[in-house]
């Protein structure tokens, strides 16, 4: 009962039940009225029959016999006169005197035809039972009450009958009209409820389709439905759409300002890091150059060697900066993961590579190897002397996961939030670009680089490199890495 359709159906069912109850009441009232009319006809017939009996008693008083013979015209004439005095002439009345063995002796009425079967049956009952007989029957003109009473006297088996017809009023026509009106009302209500249900359902489907159609995340402008209640909802949704658009615009403006602030802050950090990384070699070269100017040939040679080392350091720094800014297009291939990890570990001392035998991974070998080189170099520099760095790989579904774990001191809590930003390092001799470049290489392949376990308290750090496999149609065939 939570839908509009079910509620309208319930309303129609209740209306139908009420209409059926009213119709039943009308039929019951009509039947009661018909029965009352029939009883009235019987009462009138009985009263007139009694009047005939009284007139016959007066006519036969003092008559000791004998009975008139069959076909006596004078007797029939007297009986007709008796009926004329007892029965008023009316289209609704018919009276007669019947004698067993001879039939009808006299009749009175406006339109006399052959005696009705019901009249003959009532007369026969009165003769056989020797008492007054009553009968009711329906006719086209209305209910008919029939009374037959034996006439005592010198003539045996003489019976008088009276048939009274009570014309029906407007009862049947009124009943038919009332039932027709009820039926018309029910049909009109059913049509109205169906129209309302379909109209509302169509408007609701239109609103739902309009709200589900846009993929931009914005509410659409809804057209009025013409239904006052639904248009209130439409107006509220349009107001919400306007407010949402304004809020989104303010959010985008705020996000743009925040992004600009973050870019400026990042640019400031990068500029400060670059300045710091360049200033130290320049200061060292200046000091060595001053010593060379003031010293002998041996000191000048040592100073030039130190200057060349600082120039190499600057060149490496510039190369790493360029590596961060270069746009990389990955070229994923299907490689043998154990062989690929073993090849990466071979370039670094004391690195143990592990992966399930026969595992195939889909990745960009060049980009992934550069990222792993940065992670392994960082892990080696932080590990104690003689410690082994663990390189482990596995494939789960379409995701390749490679972990690099060391036995170093772990990542300090102060560096964890900004660990992958440029120039963030915990070593005095580090540039802080290795992890940033490694993450850039992972993200270029649609993956990511995470600090899975920061370590500390006797545990080393663990980094997790996750690389999703691209769709199969984008792969290029290749030989396994070795």
TrEMBL record:
Q: Report the GO molecular function annotations.
A: ATP binding; phosphoprotein phosphatase activity; phosphorelay sensor kinase activity
Q: What is its main location?
A: membrane
Histidine kinase domain location: 273-471
Q: Where in the cell is it found?
A: Cell membrane
Q: What residue ranges carry the coiled-coil annotation?
A: 230-264
Catalytic reaction list: ATP + protein L-histidine = ADP + protein N-phospho-L-histidine
Q: Which residues form the signal peptide?
A: none
GO CC, sorted alphabetically, is: plasma membrane
The membrane spanning regions, by residue number, are 140-163, 175-196
Q: Which SUPFAM superfamilies match?
A: ATPase domain of HSP90 chaperone/DNA topoisomerase II/histidine kinase (SSF55874), Homodimeric domain of signal transducing histidine kinase (SSF47384)
Q: Which cofactor(s) are needed, names only?
A: Mg(2+); Mn(2+)
Question: HAMP domain spans which residues?
Answer: 198-249
* Pfam families noted in UniProt: HATPase_c (PF02518), HisKA (PF00512)
Record keywords: RNA-binding included?
no
- EC number(s)? 2.7.13.3
Alphabetized, the UniProt keywords read: ATP-binding, Cell membrane, Coiled coil, Hydrolase, Kinase, Magnesium, Manganese, Membrane, Nucleotide-binding, Phosphoprotein, Protein phosphatase, Stress response, Transferase, Transmembrane, Transmembrane helix, Two-component regulatory system, Virulence
Look up and give the membrane topology term: Multi-pass membrane protein
Q: What name is this protein filed under?
A: Signal transduction histidine-protein kinase/phosphatase MprB
Q: Which organism is it from?
A: Rhodovastum atsumiense
